[in-house]
Amino acid sequence: MEHNVITINGQPYPTRNYPLLPIAAYGSRDLYNLNDTQYRTSVAIHEAGHAIAHLAGGNAHLVHVSLADDLDVEVNGAVEAWSYDRHAPAAVIADCAGERAVDMWLHIAGLWTDERAIAAEIAAHFDRALALAVPGMTHALLRGMHDPTDDLLAAHWPSVEAVAEALITARHLTGDQVAHITGLPNREQP
Fold it and tell me: Number of folded domains in the chain?
């Protein structure tokens, strides 16, 4: 079920979780309501989720993953990967992987709340825009990609955590460093 009570840049933003608060008054950092260490971990988990999905999906060359020193900026982490086929399901799964990794981490850490789940969804609005740019992709189809994304992340969860931990320390990892940490192959540049 989708809830259409949130808008981003004037456009409806369907969410899986129903907000209990007036979302317009809060940014995703406010909704997370996490201490600085927990928030930095959530951002690192988000970016690590993307990185692992790119490697495990086998559809991209991972160039790098990074975490900003100042997390109070709009773009506080980034992944650069060169997809072989931007329209392949593996590419859409990689787009979904940041949001879904944070949701999984919140559950594992005992920190999941409706507000934090909504925060993870809001924080992924750039990722969703990438996925929705694939011809024929809809919010409903994108939501259907969450289960295979969750399955991929669950299968590689120790790697997600290891990359997030390394990212918190180093702030920047090359794709080859991520491949070394995880044992997953990093395809050649397309």
Answer: 1
Per-residue pLDDT band at 70 (split at 50, 70, 90)? confident
Q: Mind listing the pLDDT tens digit for each residue in 42-57?
A: 999 999 999 999 999 9
Q: Which H/E stretch holds residue 45? A: helix 36-57
Between 19 and 77, where is the model more confident? 77
pLDDT at 2 over 60: no
> Does 157 have pLDDT greater than 70?
yes
SS3 at position 27:
coil
Mention every residue, 6+ apart, whose C-beta is less than 8 A from residue 102. Answer: 42, 45, 46, 49, 120, 123
Instruction: Tell me the C-alpha distance between 145 and 90, whole Å.
Output: 10
Buried b (16+ CB within 10 A) or exposed e, 20-29: eeebeebebb
Residue 16 lies in a domain: no
In contact, 154 and 104? CB cutoff 8 Å: yes
Evaluate the CA torsion angle 127, 103, 90, 15 in order and state its sign. Answer: negative
- What's the rounded Cα separation, in Å, for the pair 176 and 19? 39
Q: Considering the domain boundaries, does residue 187 fall inside one?
A: no
